[in-house]
Every structure is written in C-alpha cells, then in structure tokens.
Amino acid sequence: MLRPVHTPLFLIFFITLWSCKTEIASVDPVLPLPNEYQLAWQELDYYAFIHFNMNTFTNKEWGYGDEKPSQFNPTELDTRQWARVVKDAGMKGIIITAKHHDGFCLWPSEFTEHSVKNSPWRGGNGDLIRELSEACKEYGLKFGIYLSPWDRNHPDYGTPQYISYFRNQLRELLTDYGEIFEVWFDGANGGDGYYGGANEERRVDKKSYYDWPTTIELVRSLQPQAVIFSDAGPDIRWVGNEKGYANETTWSPIFRDSVYAGIPDFQRFAAGQENGTHWVPTETDVSIRPGWYYHPEQDDQVKSLSKLVDIYYNSVGLNSSLLLNLPVDTRGLVHENEIENLNALAEYLRSTFSKDYSKGQEVTTSSNLNGYEAMALTDEDKNSYWVSEANDQNPTIELFLEHQVKVNTFMIQEYLPLGQRIKSFYFEVLTDGNWEQVYKGTTIGNKRLIRFDTQSIEGLRFTITDTKAQVAISNIGLYKAPE
Ligand code: FUL
C-alpha cells in the first residue's frame, strides 16, 4: 500500500538536513598550510642525490674552476644502472649535480664551452642530463636538478652578466629534459676561483647578488610543480647539518621574510618555528660516504646498514625527507659497496613496513568530531583522518590487539592539509596488563617514527599533551623491525 507522499518527503528533507549538520563538522586549518606540490613532495620520503661531475675525476670535493673538459672521461657510464640501484633501494627519485661550484656542465649548454661537449666522453656528443632523465623515466623515478649558483670557472662571476648566464642555464635544464620535481640551490657561494683566468677572490652579497625572487619566478613559470630547495626555501629548507639527522622538534613553518641561499640562520631554522608564517619543511641531505664525491680511498667507508637505518629514522621519522647521496665513481657507476648496503637497507625497510599490526584492530579515541572517526587512523588512506573535539585537552588514541604481538616500531602522521598542530606527546605500550611509557616527544608533522625495545604487547596508547588546536591525524602504524 502506498503511503501519503507529503509526509515522508518532508521528513526525509529534515532528516537529511540534520544528518548533514551532524556528520560534516568543519575543522579550521592551522596556518600556514603546504601547497599541493609540497604535499606531493612530502610523500616521497626518501630519494637520491648523485654527486658526479669533474670532481669525480680530479678526486676533489670542490674544484677550483681551472679543470679541463678533457679530464671528464667516464669509461663505463650507465645512468640506467644508477636508476636501477636507486629503484631497488626503494628511493623515489634522483637529483643530479648538473653543475657544481667548478662550473663544469654535464649537458652541452649553448652558453659555455666548459661542458661535456668538449670532453672525450661519447666523443663530445654526450648529454648526461638527457641520459639520466630518460633512465629515470624508464624506472619510474622523479628527476631533479642541482645547479650551483657559485661558478668558479665563469669569467663573469660576481657581475650582473653572470646572473643572466645562470638563468640561461636554468632555462635549458628546465625546458629540455621533461618534468623536474625539485630544483636544488646550494648555499656555498663566493670565494676564490679561476674565473676565466683571473685567479682571484670574488665575494658577493648573498642577499642581493642573485636576485632570487626573479630566479624563483623563472622556475615557477617553466616547472610549476617543482619544489625549490635552498637554505631557507622557498619550498624546502636545509635541515642544518650534513650528518643525516633532523631535529627532535621539527616545525615545518618558519618565519621567512626572504629567501637567501647561503644565509641559513640555523638558530632559527633547524627546529623551525611553532608560529612561523611560511610552510617550508626540511630536507635532510647526507652522503653514504664521508665525501659527496667519489674518492677511491673511501671505498671501505660506506655507511653501514645500522647507520643508514638510524639516519632513516632520524630524518623521515622526524618530519623531514631523506636525500641520500651516492657518489658515482670514475667508471660512471654506483660502486658495488654502496649497492650492497643500499640493498640491505631496502630489505630492512621492506621487512619492517610490509606488515602493519594495527590494521583491522580495535582503535578508540578520547573524543572525535562527527565525521572524523577513529577508524580513519588505520585505514591506510592519507585523505581520511581523525579529529579530536576542541575541548579535549589530552587527545588520546588507544589500540587493543586481538593477540599479543612482538613489535618495536610505531608510526604516526598528522593530516598536513590542515596544518601542523601537535606540540608534544607520549607513547605507552600495554604488556601483561601494565602500561609502560616508552617514548616522550614533541612535534609530529608528516611522519614520526618511534623505536622501542622489542616487546610482546597487547595494546598501545598515544597521548597528545599539547597542541595548537584540536588534532587531525591521518594514519598510525605498528611494525616489527628486524633486530
Ligand atoms: C654543499 C656543497 O658545498 C657540497 O659540495 C655539496 O654539494 C653539498 C650537498 O652542499 O653546500
């Protein structure tokens, strides 16, 4: 039998209105916020730097600028080997030193003779940037460019003409080689050098000489999705050391009035600033050997698996990304010793993160805003997230496991599109009915990895003790890393 039409429609209308109101509460963002390209970059976690250029052949870290193109002569150069090694290591991309401080160019730039075109490599017809960009494409890796603002070879360095030269080179690199994910501007600039034969010291005013705003606009116009790195951003900042360790407290926001490569102001930037005005997360750059470039005498000084693991946890696990440098050797290959340790690291990370013990387990929270339930925490979807209620002073996550599990690693991520919020927390595990605090920390941001002694636990509790606003957390994970 049909019912009268007007009553249910009327009811349905109000029920819909009511449910919309209760389910979709609004969450105010905490400024500043990342842009879409910074968010995409943030997901890369771990990618490679490759230092390979003239210094590889002169066995130096910083060439003076008087080297001869004839000295650049790799015998077995194979960028596909680099890409394969990087891919196998679980890294997501490669940033290459297209030009280091000595000025030699790995591509046949039309603006200088100081490049591969005058070297014996590939009979002077080689273009390493092309070969590497193609290898990255083939292996599904992102491709990035390091272009040194300092040039110890160029006669015009220190004058306005050099800035035009620098931008012309940037235009070549950002036009001719497909999509670029990151542009890396080194802070080391100004000092003595060859400078076309002048052999003198040239100091520049790092704040004004490069006119960074114009260069940044050039990058934006050619590769809008590329994130730009320098000591102070604009998109990504230096972590403040070359050891591979981010700060325990790492805010992505900083007070950045201007961008100056070479004026890092680490006192302010290493930890970021809780109430900073710009979103400029850190990148942790470190070499797998003592040097950035290949030196045969360092063949037995490749960082060990345990050191690499430590670096991974202290960069990726501390709201940073890991830019791990591989010094390609004089053959033009990633050395066997690197490959061995990288493969061990990849295996370690795979075996740790392939099984998440929190998945499918019962999660409860101290409060939640309608529409942002606890189950978002374990659904492995970065777009869903849990939000606590505004009056919840100690937002808490509890997870009870069906069976005891042996674990030693916990992961938690804030939902970054709403800004970085959490200021401090502690973490407890439940063993044989007893809660034990195993870690106490400060910021979280993109990702916090917590290591603790391997234990058979039946539950865990994560308590936020201070936050800028109600918390928004997208994911948690529970893992067992190999001993
Ligand atoms: C530094 C440079 O001077 C080193 O040679 C290296 O390229 C490193 C990544 O950045 O500032």
Structure characteristics:
23% helix, 2 domains, 483 residues, globular, 10 helices, TIM Barrel, disordered N terminus, 8-stranded parallel β-sheet, alpha/beta, Jelly Rolls
Describe the fold and architecture.
Strand 2, helix 5 (128-138) and strand 3 form a beta-alpha-beta unit. The protein has helices at residues 6-23, 36-42, 54-58, 79-88, 128-138, 160-175, 212-222, 266-269, 305-315, 336-353, and strands spanning 46-51, 93-99, 142-147, 182-184, 191-193, 200-202, 227-229, 237-238, 253-254, 278-279, 282-287, 320-327, 362-365, 386-387, 396-414, 422-431, 434-441, 448-467, 472-479. The chain is α/β, with parallel strands linked by helices and 483 residues long. It has 2 domains: 36-353, TIM Barrel; 362-479, Jelly Rolls (Sandwich). It contains 10 helices and 19 strands. The model is unreliable at 1-22 (pLDDT under 50). Helix 6 packs parallel to helix 7 (212-222) and helix 9 (305-315) packs across helix 10 (336-353). Residues 61, 186-188, 285, 292 line the site of beta-L-fucopyranose (FUL).
Short account of what is shown:
The chain is α/β, with parallel strands linked by helices and 483 residues long. Helix content is 23%, strand content 25%.
* Amino- and carboxy-terminal Cα gap: 69 Å
User: What value does the Rg take, in angstroms?
Assistant: 26 Å
Total strand segments: 19
Give the CATH class of the largest domain.
Alpha Beta
Please tell me the CATH architecture of the largest domain by its name.
Alpha-Beta Barrel
Structural class: alpha/beta
The percentage of residues in β strands lies in: 25-35%
How many domains would you count in the coordinates? 2
What is the H-and-E element order?
Answer: HHEHHEHEHEEEHEEEHEEHEHEEEEEEE
In this entry the ligands are: beta-L-fucopyranose
Detail the poorly predicted runs. 1-22
Secondary structure tally, helices? 10
Strand order of the largest sheet: 7-4-3-2-1-12-11-8
Q: How much helical structure, as a percent, in the residues?
A: 10-25%
Q: Given the C-alpha coordinates, what overall shape results?
A: globular
Mean pLDDT reading: 94
In the CATH scheme, what's the topology name of the largest domain?
A: TIM Barrel
| Largest sheet composition | 8 strands, parallel
Can you say what the CATH homologous superfamily of the largest domain is?
Answer: Glycosidases
